[in-house]
Amino acid sequence: MTAHSDPRMSRQITPGAAPFQVSFEFFPPKTDVMEERFWDSIGKLAPLHPRFVSVTYGAGGTTRERTLRMVSRIKSDTGVDAAAHLTCVGASRDEVDAVVRGYQAVGVNRIVALRGDPPEGTGQPFVAHPEGYQNAAELVAGIRRIGDFDISVSAYPEKHPQSPNWDAEIDNLERKLGAGASRAITQMFFDNDDYFRLLDRAEKAGITAPIVPGIQPIHSFKQISSFAARCGATIPNWVAQRFEGLDEDPETHALVASAVAAEQVLELVDQGITEFHFYTLNRANLVLALARLLGVRPS
Q1: CA distances in angstroms from 6 to 93, 191, 208, listed in the order given
Q2: φ/ψ of residue 152, rounded to 5
Q3: Which residues are catalytic?
Q4: Which end of the chain has fewer CB atoms within 10 angstroms, the N or the C?
């Protein structure tokens, strides 16, 4: 990670500036034990008053009912706005629209709209349902037709693995935002230069919507490495070297993970970034520490 100048310096934080805004991503738990940890983590993070808490949506809608149950309960039990993920995979437009109306009926008005990856994995070509939304831009437009939702979409600091080039990547981002999304949230990244290059490309294309950095604390280097390989995110050598030999040393691993995440977040702060989306993996501790570094505390 390196320092930057010119375009970002105008976004430097100044005394009296607006406080940092944070949001957190969770996934629907599959077991009773996992669900207990899920609600424990929600309970620890809700007092930070995040902009929203999002809950992911399995390939082909495999977690649809759990996602709906979780976002409904988060909003009713904690008062925190909850955003439900939604994809185009394996469903007709009518089926997807019915899910959107289900969210609307329980008062969930935030959606993270994604094309989604095929159940076979990110390396396989995406094949849309013959009667379904063909891409995320169509999905956003469909959601917008149903109601006045706050919609977030994805952005890729290292380019989506299936994008042929950066022009196509930025055109796709522009279409998603132009269809009615309020912001983009990036896939996890570990080199801030990749994120800043994405901002530069978006700015040159005339994109003005916020592109919020998605931060993934490395709770488990082995697990995050596997995630990164599947979604086309690069883990720099210097990051990998810091975790060498720590597989059987969880205490030191946790300390190193805290330091790596703190360096990344604080460098983004130095360049004027004030909004962050944290991928929690349903764990609160590292994210709580990062929020505290940002001065985000329970009221």
Answers
A1: 45, 19, 18
A2: -110, 150
A3: 25
A4: C
What letter represents residue 267's amino acid?
E
Strand order in the sheet with 82-87: 211-212, 183-186, 150-155, 110-114, 82-87, 52-55, 21-26, 275-279, 214-215
Rounded to two decimals, what is the model's pTM?
A: 0.90
Q: What is the pLDDT of residues 161-183, one digit of tens each?
A: 889 999 999 999 999 999 999 99
Structural tokens at position 86: 């939604």
Closest CA to 187 of 171, 175, 169: 169
CB 26 within 8 A of CB 41: yes
Token pair recorded at residue 24:
């957190």
- pLDDT tens per residue across span 189-236: 999 999 999 999 999 999 999 999 999 999 999 999 999 988 889 999
Within 10 angstroms of residue 221's Cβ, the number of other Cβ atoms is 20
